[in-house]
Amino acid sequence: MKLVIPVRRAVERMRPYHPPLEGRTGKLRLDFNENALGCSPAVRRALARLTREQVAMYPEYEATRRRLARFFHVRPAELVLTNGTDDALRLVVDTFVEPRSRVLLVEPTFAMYRFYAELAGAKIAALRYDSAMQFPLQKVLRVLRARPCVFFLANPNNPTGTLLGRSELKQILEAAHNTLVVVDEAYFEFSGVTVLPWIRRFPNLVVTRTFSKAAGLAGLRVGCLFAHRALVSVLRKAHSPYSVNTAALVAAEAAVREGRFVQQYAREVVRNRQELARALAALGIKFFPSGGNFVLVDFGPRAPTVLRRLRQRGILARDRQADFGRVGLVRITVGTRAQMRRLIRALRELWKS
After folding, report:
1. What is the mean pLDDT of residues 225-253?
2. Are residues 143 and 59 in the same domain?
3. What's the pLDDT score for residue 1?
4. Is the N or the C terminus of the chain less surrounded, counting Cβ atoms within 10 Å?
């Protein structure tokens, strides 16, 4: 059917985003970088205490903002509560990106950077990770001289796992005189590398965090955007007043009160990431070092068969061939010790056959 109302040209040109297949309940979910264990018992208890009156009211943010600001060691005026990281990215684009503004990306990376930039009609300046998944630092520094509007940078990067250190991040921020640099720290708990304390030093820096990964709140959609207070005051003007729901606020507060759960889970994931790497090396399967809760693996031409047979065994992994333009590359989320040993047993059987 032909639409009567003309569609914006930016939308017509966009490629649709294709999330993983549904039907994931009850399976070993190693395809979406979620917390494979689930949220903490403290979060479950807090959600169970929600009253009918709270559910019926529009959410109130100030108390949660103050508590989360204390947890993250920032001021409330330096924090925006968002509906996951996606909402934070869209807020940045809505506030700063005009049609035909230049947005810098290093791909493959989180698909929502390009998604929101293209939706706004921006021009994408896209660099690439090399075959070893190395970050093209010198090329980025050269492009920053041309003053793109925004540079979106995931650290660690999804799906490559690439992690930049503070030295490289400092070079980028010092070169970005007229560019807003958005450092997405969705996987901070697994890498330990952060530039959050730098938001007062660099007024063009935005840092985003999410409760979807280590804290296990992906189904509730809650995140944080941090920046210099002058930048935050502008961003809040463009932000929807009720983007984060009451249940998400309650869960986020419970998650930070019981912070040991997240810390213990993150430590276990890092140990299990190392165990998975050793198992892959022993099988002769190529993989790339990762700072996140996942590992990018190269199964070569056998990847479609491996993915299909894993799924038959109730194990889900993420095919990333569309990102790299070739068959073989698969991203595997790292979960608990028992989950990883189940995966490793399956891989040993499949690879030998």
Report:
1. 97
2. yes
3. 54
4. N
81: Cβ–Cβ under 8 A, 6 or more apart, which residues?
A: 61, 64, 65, 68, 222, 223, 224, 243, 244, 249
Residues 337-343: what's their mean pLDDT? 97
Which CATH number fits the domain that encloses residue 30?
3.90.1150.10
Domain count for the chain? 2
pTM value? 0.94
Angle at 247 between CA 246 and CA 248, to 5 degrees: 90
The residue behind tokens 């958005």 is: 182
> 293 with 187: CB under 8 angstroms?
yes
So what's the pLDDT on residue 19? 66
pLDDT top residue among 69 and 27 = 69
Q: Which residues of 42-76 are buried (b: 16+ CB within 10 A; e: fewer)?
A: bbeebeeeeeeeeeeeebebeebbebbbeebebbb
Place of tokens 């791909």: 107
Q: Identify whether 196 is part of a domain.
A: yes
Q: What phi-psi label fits residue 275: left (phi over 0), alpha (psi between -120 and 50 degrees) or beta? A: alpha
3-state class (DSSP) for residue 89? helix
